[in-house]
Amino acid sequence: MAEAAILDRLPRVAEVAVPAAGLADRLTGATTPFVVRGLAADWPLVQAAGQGGAAVRALLARQARPRGFPASIASQAGDARLFYTDAMAMNFRMDMAPLAQWLAAMAEAETDPAQPTLYLSSIDMADYFTGLGEAHQLPLGDRQPLASIWIGTRTCIAAHNDVPENVAVCAAGRRRFTLFPPDQFANLYVGPLDNTPAGRPVSLVDVRAPYLARFPRFAEALAQAQVAELGPGDAIFVRSLWWHHVEGLAPFNVLVNFWWRDCPRWLGNPEDALLHAILAVRDLPDHQRRQWQALFDHHVFAPDAGVTEHLPPEARGVLAPLTPETAGRIKARLLRGLSR
Question: Which pTM does this prediction carry?
Fold first, then answer.
């Protein structure tokens, strides 16, 4: 099935009309992704995008710190998909250089499709630029997000998910997001947890041309998918753990995103618990694994009053709602155990 035919069949991500000042309230309690057109229309990068890629690159160059910027460079020209090889190695290499060098290469690639894909991904704006983050903000209320910028030529990033909540803004070029609900992970044929293109496990299916004979369950994922195309100034809210396949469609693309978690910073990362469970539980004998599953349900996934009602409040320890102190005690115990 041709790429255009696949995307034409998918429903569009819901669009909402909300001014920037109302974004924080709109995000509170949001349960599904949504798009806001023109949310960041007044950003300097978006304004520069109206003048062309050269103006955007000049703005970025002026505010870049004098340090190396990490970049992914495709192994061969014409392959915008930063992914695995047939041998499950990466089809790109990493390198470090001043931003001016990467921007010059992108300027060349803008008119020469024979140049390899070049991508600067998840660059911390505060660490790598002076003043750029301050000039490109969204009113997110009391949320304290990490602001990152993504700069590249045409790119295709396999479907993956992220733990934080995410508002992403297309600042230059065009972006296409194809979204899948969290419960579709089994239908996305996710690759290794410990050998990933960019730190996140990814779907092995090419959304643009899915090979359904090899990945038959992906048809169910497609039935649940949504798509959105963003131009400069448009924003999309991607909920925590929603899978998203992201393409940079223009010869030169810039995206800015804001990540945050709606929970205390001192809580642990659920992915650490997943890896620890693989280490400690998954390969146990069946009867032991089933018993641990019951204990996880009792203490973690379906706790009720029966878990602690027989204990006086002052004796409940980590079974009570966590505090920074009790969370710290758990981390210390885990560190001691893992160091043995």
Answer: 0.94
